[in-house]
Amino acid sequence: MSVESPQVHQNRTKALVLAVVLSLLTLYTNTTTDHYEGPAFEYNITNPLPQGSYALCSAEGVARGVYTVDATDGVVECVLVVDEWVKGTGYLGEVKEAWKGIGASDLLPVVRVPQGAVVVPGFADSHCHILEYGFSKQIPLGGLRTIKESVEAVAHYVQSNPDILADEGGIVEGWGWDHKTFEGGKMPTASDLSSHPVLANRQIILLSKDTQLGSRRLRWIRMGLTRLTWMGVLSCGMCREMLQAYSLTRR
């Protein structure tokens, strides 16, 4: 059995602390609580985190709201952070004792999250994205940079395929666009697609290259949902799932 070196252990611990902090900033920056009415040396999470050392704790009155996700799936009140390193977990009194135990003489700043919030390590998973090679060959969206290019590419695809051109009730699918590369950050809207005479009455689904923006982008892609049924008509790969997700956002 291999033993983890001290340096690897330190790097892993430091990464965990960073992940926790980033998770909190992401989840709670938009909280409606402007400040925390608590004892001195306590901060609301909407303020900048203290420099150096601090205790990151559950909301006031919540005994355990910090999920350590360790071997025992521990849930505690606070986690002690010392110079970006996790040095202890437990109730506030316990982490204060740990703070004293490392020889600290200063008062320990306490950061509390808003009511109803929890603290979790940063979520990261290992996964892969299928290349969708065949899908990408339908409409070449990968290298497009402007709205005009995108509309023309879709229209050209429709006009180049007689069976698709003849089926105005069918769904035109495209994959591979990258929102980060569009000029000015603007992407085709339903109005843009409808402005082309070939596309005006067609249902179109354009998925991003990671497929993660497709359902959200269905809000601005012309589809004519009222003419569709979930069973029988939608047999086009991801169409059924994407449109079902879209319908849920409209309720």
UniProtKB/TrEMBL annotation:
<protein>
    <recommendedName>
        <fullName>Amidohydrolase 3 domain-containing protein</fullName>
    </recommendedName>
</protein>
